[in-house]
Every structure is written in C-alpha cells, then in structure tokens.
Amino acid sequence: MIAQASNFVNETDTTFFIIVAVCVFFLLLITISMVVFVIKYSRKRNTKPVNIHGSTALEITWTVIPTMIALGMFWLGWVGYKDLSRPPKDSMIVDVTAQMWRWNFKYANGVQTDTLYVPLNKDVEVRLHSLDVDHSFYVPAFRVKKDCIPTRTNIAWFRAEEVGTYQVFCAEYCGLNHSYMYSAVKVLPEYDFNMWLAGKAQKTTVANTGSGSVKTSHIVTNSGN
Question: Does the predicted TM-score (pTM) go above 0.90?
C-alpha cells in the first residue's frame, strides 16, 4: 500500500476510486449485457431475423449519461489540479531543478542539496525547472506530480503530514538513465529541520569563505613574486 503522507492524499485517492468504480460498473454492465444478448438473440433461438428499429429515447439516454459522467470526472480532476497549483501565500519556497539525470533542491538562503528536506506540517511550494528535456516531479506518497519543462517554471505545493523518508521519481521518460533519476523527500519535525537548514547554511558559508581565502592568498603570492 502506498504511503499516505500529505494533505492531497484523501482528495486524490477519492477521485481515483470514484473513477475506478465508474469504470468497473460499466465494464460489468456492458459485459453482462453482451452475454445476455448473445444468448437471448442467438441463431438457435431466433431462426428468422427481424429488423429492430431505432429509439430516439435510447439514443439520447446513452449520449447524455456518459457525457455527464465524463464531465463529472473532469470536474473532480480540475478541482484537484487547481488546488495543487495554488500554494498558500506563506509557503516555504524551494527551487527544484531537474536535469539528466538528477535533482537539485535550492532553498531561500542559498543551501542546495540533492535530497529534498522539508518540515512537518509546513506548506512547501516547489518551483519546478528543467535544464534540458521534459521531466516530471513525482512523489507517490504525497500524491503530487507536476512536469518540469525547459524555459518554463511550473508550481506545485504540498504539506507533509508524517515524519519519514519518501521517494521522488521522474515520471516523464527523459533518456537513457531515466530509471535512475530518483531522490528522496525527508520530512523532519520543524525544530530539527530549522537546525539542519541553519547548519547547512553555515557549512556553505564557511566553504565559500575558505575557497575565497585560498584564492586571495594565491593572488597575493603571485603579486609578491
């Protein structure tokens, strides 16, 4: 059973099960009707064929009912799509960059990782980019999926509701190593996440300062010579 770890689980699963139930109902209805008609109107039972005239009421019925069902399915999907595409205003923003065949996650303070870390019960807005071909950011446990398209920024969001580690996949075939393009979302309690982010930011600052010092020392030495 797929994990259920975000605010979109109930809405997405309900839509999915409604569509599956409708499809199963009509599969059984059509199959049973077909079997009944084959038996009832077989050549053995009806040796002399008789023409059957059309029915306007029947034509209208089997046109209107499927149309209404299809529109209902569309409405369910559209509502879910709008919800996924409209993050709350106070969401934490993470830039997600996809390229063959890896993910990069960048936070507002400049920290970059190849694994997505998020705080528990916090709205997270992901801004999706691609550096080369079409990719798709897909977290099954969150029921979140959105394409990453070159020269365009797509937006999705989620709120993780269970601590844990969840898989991130590319759900759009993107080349030879497409099946290896996966990462993870690590959901931490908010305090632990803040400590992690601050620690990563400090390490990044120290690393940048250190590399800058080396370059400066190298330049000064060359000037002295």
Answer: no
